[in-house]
């Protein structure tokens, strides 16, 4: 029998339409973990791959992260038969004399992340995790939590983790230093930009951590605590919902962008948290649809191993795209999507008829992350001015490409010494030796004028590139003005589409254009009167580089540019339409003149992600 990876996905046969469906989905996803609990139930080890932190912390991650879903499931009346394991695991994991002790917490320790899930569960269902403990076990747990609070938490969404621990301590009647809570609440406010948007810390980037971390924890806080911060978190979520809905396509997919995408349907966590907080930021039928459609999008993806355990990866198992802090238990942050199970069957989230938001028909500009989203016949494409993440692997691919797509995702490169074989989808790559290459990593400047994006960046200190991105749905146009003291080889890619086996795809490459046609999709890139001649290339990208599909084709334009100034212009199109070569492909937009684009650079507003973060004490 041929193995179908998608059939191992526990969501595969679930319609994911009702509260009962979501309850079954949670349990079906959790059950494959049971064989991997340790003898003392304090650790869950799923494979031998490593993260940058110690093995005990990785095992705690596998133990704790399912609690993001199990706690609300039980709080909402669900029957979970393995709480005894968790109570025993907590007792043993916090006992310094037990062989399964989780280890002492230090400054900016991974254990801080996982204690947030434990604290949330303690606050929500203490009768399952606190009441069964004897006096010594309770003392060990409290000592462990209080010890963790003494250390510095990372300068980003981690600050919410100590606040969640403090909420649990409050609910358990434990005394602690509340001044630390107030300090972190104040510092988290320093990450707020405006209009519902945050940064994830003292950084120049805005990604999915805003919905599935900053807003997620803020909305939990707003339900469990009543104060001025709770009020602010609710007001900010109301504003953010109006923007974030544009990141989702009709089929439920969201724009993959940034780090930690192995958390997969945690991207629905914002909509789930609105239900938990009883905050109707959009009509309940739309919130429900955005949440459940996203879960349904994942149901036919091969996102688990053969035993049903969630894998590291996005659309399929893929360690290449992971971060160095991803252990085998990391994907279970996805259980954040199950937060609506805490509210009863009579809540309007469940009683409302699922009402898909009207298909996006307008191009929408987002000045804070520096993006413009546009609908493309079922797909949503986000043009990006480019953000910065030089600290993590593939930061350029995850933050600085020109475009990201709900259907085509994006690719990471597999070999920094293979310029001729790179995917370079939605990127402009340069090489001065034909082997190594440079792409956009960060911007010196980024601006937005109407729906046009501008950025100025330097692949080398002596090479300057000005880039304009213009949405003309279903196309987008790119213009680059390059100033270089030496000749450079260049490669610019369109979108990556799924490649068929047996070389059955259509590949077309000629002077000035290239397109590829797979089983369902068309992707093309066309030169628009650049000042140098460019040759089209139908690139067979290295396997396992794209986030959504393992084998892809990418149309490219390649040329050697001379020393001095060069203008490159192109139009890019990708559609779920194998007949596009005889339709949309022949209706390319015209090439804008560089003089007409200067106003974008001169008059546009500076993208918030480029501005220095506002510091708080």
From TrEMBL:
Name under which the protein is recorded: DUF2264 domain-containing protein
Superkingdom per UniProt: Bacteria
Pfam assignment, any one: DUF2264_C
PANTHER family in the cross-refs: LINALOOL DEHYDRATASE_ISOMERASE DOMAIN-CONTAINING PROTEIN
Organism name: Sinorhizobium glycinis
Residues making up the signal peptide according to the UniProt record: none
Every DUF2264 domain range: 18-356, 363-588
InterPro entries: DUF2264_C (IPR049237), DUF2264_N (IPR049349), UCP014753 (IPR016624)
């Amino acid at each position: 029998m041929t193995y179908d990876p998608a059939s191992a996905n526990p969501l595969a046969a679930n319609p994911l339409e009702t509260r009962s469906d979501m309850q079954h989905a949670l349990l079906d996803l959790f059950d494959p973990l049971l064989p991997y609990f340790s003898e003392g139930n304090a650790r869950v080890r799923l494979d031998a791959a490593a993260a940058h932190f110690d093995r005990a912390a990785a095992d705690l991650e596998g133990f704790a992260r399912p609690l993001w879903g199990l706690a609300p499931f039980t709080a909402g009346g669900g029957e979970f038969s393995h709480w005894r394991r968790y109570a025993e695991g907590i007792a043993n994991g916090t006992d310094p004399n037990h062989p399964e002790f989780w280890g002492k917490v230090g400054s900016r320790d991974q254990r801080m992340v996982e204690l947030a899930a434990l604290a949330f569960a303690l606050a929500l269902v203490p009768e399952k995790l606190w009441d069964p403990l004897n006096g010594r076990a309770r003392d060990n747990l409290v000592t462990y939590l209080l010890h963790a609070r003494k250390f510095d938490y990372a300068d980003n969404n981690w600050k919410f983790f100590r606040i969640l621990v403090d909420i649990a301590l409050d609910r358990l009647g434990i005394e602690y230093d509340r001044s630390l809570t107030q300090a972190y609440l104040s510092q988290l406010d320093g990450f707020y930009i405006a209009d519902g948007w945050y940064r994830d810390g003292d950084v120049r980037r805005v990604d999915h951590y805003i919905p599935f971390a900053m807003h997620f924890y803020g909305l939990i806080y707003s339900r469990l605590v009543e104060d001025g911060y709770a009020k602010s978190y609710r007001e900010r979520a109301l504003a953010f919902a109006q923007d974030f809905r544009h990141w989702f396509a009709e089929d439920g997919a969201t724009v993959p962008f940034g780090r930690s995408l192995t958390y997969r349907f945690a991207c629905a966590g914002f909509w789930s948290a609105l239900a938990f907080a009883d905050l109707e930021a959009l009509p309940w039928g739309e919130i429900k649809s955005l949440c459940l459609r996203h879960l349904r999008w994942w149901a036919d993806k091969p996102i688990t191993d053969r035993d049903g355990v969630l894998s590291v990866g996005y659309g399929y198992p893929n360690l290449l795209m992971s971060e160095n802090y991803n252990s085998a238990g990391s994907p279970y942050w996805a259980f954040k999507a199950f937060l609506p199970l805490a509210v009863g069957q009579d809540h309007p989230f469940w009683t409302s008829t699922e009402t898909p938001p009207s298909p996006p028909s307008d191009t929408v500009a987002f000045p804070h992350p520096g993006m413009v989203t546009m609908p493309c016949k079922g797909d949503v494409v986000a043009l990006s001015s480019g953000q910065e993440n030089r600290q993590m692997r593939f930061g350029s691919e995850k933050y600085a490409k020109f475009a990201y797509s709900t259907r085509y995702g994006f690719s990471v490169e597999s070999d920094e010494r293979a310029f001729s074989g790179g995917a370079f989808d939605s990127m402009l790559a340069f090489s001065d030796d034909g082997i190594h290459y440079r792409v956009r990593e960060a911007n010196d400047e980024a601006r937005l004028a109407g729906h046009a994006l501008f950025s100025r960046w330097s692949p080398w200190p002596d090479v300057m590139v000005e880039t304009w991105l213009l949405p003309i749905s279903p196309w987008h146009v790119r213009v680059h003005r390059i100033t270089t003291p030496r000749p450079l080889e260049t490669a610019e890619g369109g979108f990556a589409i799924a490649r068929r086996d047996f070389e059955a795809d259509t590949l077309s490459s000629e002077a000035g254009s290239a397109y590829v046609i797979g089983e369902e999709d068309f992707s093309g890139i066309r030169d628009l009167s650049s000042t140098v001649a460019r040759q089209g290339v139908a690139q067979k990208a290295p396997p396992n580089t794209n986030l959504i599909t393992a084998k892809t084709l990418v149309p490219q334009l390649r040329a050697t540019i001379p020393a001095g100034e060069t203008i490159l212009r192109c139009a890019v199109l990708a559609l779920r339409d194998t007949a596009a070569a005889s339709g949309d492909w022949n209706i390319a937009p015209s090439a804008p003149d560089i003089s007409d684009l200067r106003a974008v650079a001169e008059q546009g507003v500076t993208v918030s992600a480029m501005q220095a973060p506002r510091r708080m004490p």
